[in-house]
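Final report, closing paragraph on structural work. Over the funding period we assembled a curated collection of sequence-structure pairs, and we close with a single example.
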Amino acid sequence: MEYTLANSIQVAFRDETLEQLAQETHEDIMALRLTFQRAIPVVVQALSGRASGPEGPEAVWKLSREAYGASVLEPTTPENKQAWARRGESLMQGLLGDSYHFTALRLATAGGVAVSAAERVLSAAAVATLGVIGEHSQEQNFGAAALATWLIREGGELPELPSETARPVAAPAILQGKPAPVAVPALPLPNAAAGTWAPVGGGHTYTPKNPETGSGSARWPWGLLLLLAVALGYIFGNQRETPPASALSLAATSASVAEPLTARATAATTSPAGSTGRYDDASGNYIYDTGQPLILRLADGTTQKVGANSTENRLYIFLADPARQVDSVNRTKGWINFDRVYFEPGATTLTDESFMQLRNVASILNTFPGSVVKIGGYTDSTGAALKNFQLSEERAKTAMLAIAGMGVDINRVQAKGYGGKYFITSNTTDEGRALNRRISIRVLKK
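Its predicted structure, as stored:
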C-alpha cells in the first residue's frame, strides 16, 4: 500500500485505544472508527495551517518530536496517556478556535456518536497524528522547514469533512428544540497574503487586509470566517466596548469586513454603560458585540478567533504591552468584563457557552506565567443586599475554580464578590440590570 499520512495515522490508532474509548464513551466501536477516519483530515489540515503561519514549522516540529519521544503510538502508562489526551484536546481547541465545538458536532453527526465522544476521538486523532509526524520526521531526518513542507503537501491532498452523513442519525440532544447552527467548515489559518500578522508579547495577532489594497482572492477565506463569526455570535453572543488604542492598531477596521457584522446586529443598541449589544429576553442576559473578528496566536502556537474588543483580546494586550501597568492605587481601574460568561438565573451554575471564554482566558494566563488576576462578581440591586453579595462571591469563586481547573495555578487567581455595590448603569431597566450582573477580571501582577 502506498504511503500516505492518513493511512499511517489510521494504522497507528491502536485497537486497544479504540476499545478503551468504546468502554469509556459507551459508543459502538465501528462508529468510533468511522469518526476517527473523518477526524484525520481535520487534524492534519489544522496542523498544516499552523505550520504555514509565523513560527509554525518550528512549533509543529518540536511538538511532533516530543510526541514521538514520549512513544504515544505505543502502549504507555495511564498517567502518560491521560496527559497526552489532555494535550491533544488543548491542541485542537487552540488550532480550531471557536469552530472547535462545531467541528466536533459535525464529526458526531457524521459518525452517529455523542458530541463528547467525538471530542475524545478528535483528541486521540491529534495525538496519533503528532506521533506519526514525529516518527516520519525522525526517519527522514526532517528539519522544521522540511517537515512543514511535507505536512502542508499532505494536508492539501486530504478531503474536507463531508457535509452530509453516510447514514441518517438522530439530531444530537444539544440541538433538540433549538435552531440548527450553520454548518461551518474547519478553516485553515490565513497567511500574510490575505492580511497582516503583528507580533505582540511573544504571540501574534492577525487582521485581514483591506480589500481595496489586496487582491480579490483574499476576500473569500475571510468571508467564510465572517460566516463563522455570525454563526457563533447567534449562539454565544458578543461584546463591544471602547477598545484600547493598541487594540485598534492591531485590528484596523475594513469596511467590507465590518459590514456583515453590523448588518447582523441591526437591532443592537448602545447601552447607557457605553457597551454595544442587545438585551435577550429569553435568557435575561446582555449579549455583547465584540467587534471585528481577528485571530490571536499565543506564544505557545495556539490560536483563538475572537473580537477586537473581546475580553480575550483586551486581556492579552494589557498583559503583553509593557506600557500598560497595573494601577496599584486605584483598585477600581483595570477591570475587564467577561462578555460571554453567564450563570443560570439566581444560581452559581455556569452556562455551557461560558466555558469557551474561560478556557481562552486560561490559555492567555498560561502564556504569562508570572501574572496574577482577580475575578470579580457583581449583581444588580434587586433583592436583599446580603444575599446578592453572597451570590456574587460564589459566582466569582466558581469562575476562579473553572480557570484553575483549566491549568492555571490556583495561587495566581483570586476571587471577590461585590454584590450590587459597583453598578455600571441604572438598575431601572431589564437591560441595565443585565449589564450590572457580570463577572470581571483585573490584572494584579504582570
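The radius of gyration is 22 Å. The first helix runs from residue 5 to 12. We thank the funder for supporting this effort.
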